[in-house]
Specification:
- The protein is an alpha+beta fold and 580 residues long.
- Helices cover 73% and strands 7% of the residues.
């Protein structure tokens, strides 16, 4: 048995071992009935549409044979597991408990230990729950794995809705106020220029307040300390169901051992409880698994000379812990040694047990615990990977939104503020041009609201061609010479990467230079799209760094391209290359 990978057939293997242990009791008729019940259980697991009919057949196959062969051997755990598969959710556990109680009453009279009904009921509950869990958990793990992409998509949608609300709150009233003020300036332009100038000043101030609010949102998006939660019910169900089955199995085993052993009953109960707690602690704290295994080995091996066969059952629990903790051939060797040691012990005054029966019972216990424990570990690992996927998806989306808010919306609002300042100076000097600029500023304000919506729309394409035309218009009012050259057809995917880069570059030209000449060229060369921007008037304090440059570099490098930005002889040079 591999300690690295739990076979998906562990549940079926345990089912076979359970039936072989019935056969080893020389109960051939019970084994035949059990085989029929096992087949019905598999049908209930694999074919949900037939579960109601299967449950009725399983009840008949479980309890009718008692009238002929008696109830010395119980296979009611197969009925209990079938009920968990075949009963509707709201009644599932009620039916399970009812079957457990009936099993204890019906089969308890045939048991030599006291109290027989309790002993049988515990065995039915533990075996039924363990078998159900091992048969069900592979399906749940598959569903957990399959929904990872859905989880990532849901995380994106949730984050985009959140940022949309924040942008709406920051832009809605402010941009509406700016548009109203621009409308007032347009209306008062020829009759009351002073009032028009005041309105333009107020529009510029309102725009700058909006820019500050938007920058605060972009900064908040870079806060990666938030720990999102995986809200999928199945993500919580798998480990809880598994650990419940382990706890029931361990303490059911302890109770059965204590009831079977008339001597040292209290010592068996205390020892089994302590060893079960150490086993569970090793699962929950893997970093201390080896010290806990050592403690378990000491408590298991030291009392053997005094308690003998009464204590030897815990060697199988120790073997299971060894398989879970150690790796490689040494683990297998230790397990074989523990099994050999267990084989040397028999109950005092009782004939030696059939080796095949003893081995089957030991394998049954080890398979159940090892299988459940490995499934618990796998489910925990998968849940951690889902949580990490949520975090990484959320962080990537937040960084993307922060860049887009800064690069795209930030440029539009910056241009709007510059327009408002320009309008203020033109109102008295050139009213006709001021009127044109007011109309243009009103259009830009409307564009800002549209762009805020596009930021959170995954399908909103950023057209590089439109951005190039927009750059020409934006620069024309403040830069004397604008040279623009680009191909008629630009690749969409590479263009979507370079569109925000172009926007941020134009923002830097307007805000951080005294440019009189700007040259922009965008061409496809071989398998790359090239964007080159050169402007004069680079200020001495300017440097090729800062958040805007970092955002541009991150976009281009993230797409597998190359990016350079440098100041040379008073000119600022930007070169971006993106694979087509």
């Amino acid at each position: 048995m591999s300690t690295q990978l739990l076979p998906r057939s562990t549940g079926y293997l345990l089912l076979v071992v359970l039936l072989l242990s019935v056969l080893a009791h020389d109960a051939v008729a019970a084994a035949v009935c059990g085989a029929m019940q096992a087949g019905l259980l598999v049908v209930a697991q694999r074919y949900p549409a037939a579960r109601a009919q299967v449950l009725a057949m399983q009840i008949a196959a479980t309890w009718l044979p008692i009238l002929v062969i008696g109830g010395a051997v119980s296979t009611d755990y197969l009925l209990a597991a079938t009920a968990l598969f075949a009963t509707r959710r709201r009644w599932r556990w009620v039916v399970f408990v009812l079957i457990v109680v009936i099993s204890g009453v019906v089969h308890g009279a045939w048991q030599p230990v006291w109290p027989g009904p309790v002993y049988v009921a515990l065995g039915t509950a533990a075996s039924g729950l363990v078998l159900y869990s091992l048969l069900r958990l592979p399906e749940l793990l598959d569903r957990l794995s399959d929904t990872r992409s859905e989880l990532a998509q849901a995380t994106l949608v949730q984050e985009r809705l959140l940022i949309a609300d924040r942008l709406r709150a920051a832009l809605g009233d402010q941009v509406a106020t700016v548009r109203d003020l621009l409308a007032d300036a347009r209306r008062e332009l020829t009759t009351r220029p002073d009032q028009a100038r005041t309105a333009a000043d107020q529009a510029a101030s309102a725009t700058r307040r909006t820019i500050r609010a938007v920058r605060e949102i972009a900064t908040a998006q870079r806060d990666l300390d938030v720990q999102p939660v995986d809200g999928a019910p199945i993500a919580r169900l798998v480990p809880r169901l598994t650990i419940l089955a382990i706890v029931v199995g361990l303490f059911g085993w302890t109770a059965n051992q204590a009831m079977e052993m008339t001597d040292h009953r209290l010592s068996i109960a205390i020892g089994g409880t302590l060893l079960s707690c150490l086993f569970l602690a090793g699962l929950y704290t893997p970093r201390y698994a080896l010290p806990l295994l050592t403690a378990q080995a000491v408590i298991t091996l030291l009392p053997l000379p005094w308690f003998g066969a009464y204590w030897s059952a815990w060697l199988i629990l120790l073997a299971t812990a060894v398989l879970l903790t150690l790796r490689g051939p040494w683990a297998v060797a230790v397990v074989i040694a523990l099994f050999a040691l267990r084989a040397t012990y028999t109950k005092p005054g009782v004939a030696p047990i059939d080796p095949s029966l003893w081995l089957l019972l030991a394998l049954q216990a080890m398979l159940a615990l090892f299988g459940l424990a490995r499934f618990w570990q796998l489910s925990q690992q998968l849940n951690r990977s889902r949580a990490e996927l949520v975090r990484s998806t959320l962080h990537i989306e937040r960084l993307r939104l922060a860049r887009d808010i800064h690069d795209l919306l930030g440029l539009t609002l910056s241009v709007l503020a510059l327009k408002a300042d320009l309008i203020t100076g033109l109102i008295t000097r050139d009213p006709e041009r001021a009127a044109r600029e007011i109309d243009e500023a009103s259009r830009i304000a409307a564009d800002a609201q549209s762009e805020a919506h596009a930021l959170v729309d995954a399908d909103a394409a950023k057209s590089l061609g439109r951005e190039l035309d927009s750059a020409r218009k934006t620069l024309a009012d403040t830069v004397a010479i604008v040279e623009l050259g680009y191909d008629d057809e630009l690749p969409d995917q590479a263009g979507a990467v370079l569109a925000p880069v172009l926007r941020e570059a134009i923002t830097n030209v307007l805000r951080h230079s005294a440019a009189t000449r700007v040259r922009i060229e965008c061409r496809r060369r071989k398998d790359h799209l090239h964007l080159d921007i050169r402007n004069d008037g680079a200020r001495r304090a300017s440097r090729p760094g800062g958040q805007g440059i970092d955002n541009m570099r991150a976009r281009v490098l993230g797409a597998g391209g190359s990016f350079t930005a440098e100041v040379s002889r008073g000119d600022f040079l930007l070169k971006a290359r993106v694979p087509c």
